[in-house]
Amino acid sequence: MERGLSECLGEFRDRWDALADGGIASPERLLELTVSSAVESRRPYWMQAAASWLVEMQATSGFDQALVHNLIRRPSASPEMSQQWRQR
């Protein structure tokens, strides 16, 4: 998550045929799971990394917007992340 969402999503889409047998439906779903794990970890570093991707996910088609909005609400309630979210 240290790189931009669109860059990572593009790379996964380019190589998805080789990865598709892993049981995950799409590159977008893989990134949703990655961001969900980061948010649920409650670790400030990963939550901060997830914040920028969540902002991008809101504006990118193919992502489950209900999930994205739910994930955004979680860290915004956390004191250590509230300033991070206000800046975005």
Low-confidence stretches: none
Shape: globular
How many H/I helices? 5
Helicity, as a percent range: over 70%
The total of beta strands comes to 0
Mean pLDDT: 86
By secondary-structure content and strand pairing, the structural class works out as: mainly alpha
Q: Could you tell me the radius of gyration in angstroms?
A: 13 Å
Distance between the ends? 16 Å
Share of residues in strands: under 5%
Give the biggest beta sheet.
none
Taken in chain order, the helices and strands follow as HHHHH
Secondary-structure blueprint:
Elements (H helix, E strand, L loop, with lengths): L4 H15 L7 H15 L2 H15 L6 H12 L2 H9 L1
Helix pairs in contact: 2-3, 2-4, 3-4, 3-5
Characterise this structure:
- There is one protein chain.
- With 88 residues, this protein is mostly helical.
- Helices cover 75% and strands 0% of the residues.
- Helix 3 packs antiparallel against helix 4 (65-76) and helix 3 (44-58) packs parallel to helix 5 (79-87).
- The protein is globular, with a radius of gyration of 13 Å.
- It starts with a helix and ends with a helix.
- The model has no long low-confidence stretch (mean pLDDT 86).
Summary, kept brief:
This protein has helices at 5-19, 27-41, 44-58, 65-76, 79-87. The chain is mainly alpha-helical and 88 residues long.
Name a few traits of the molecule.
mainly alpha; 75% helix; globular; single chain; 88 residues
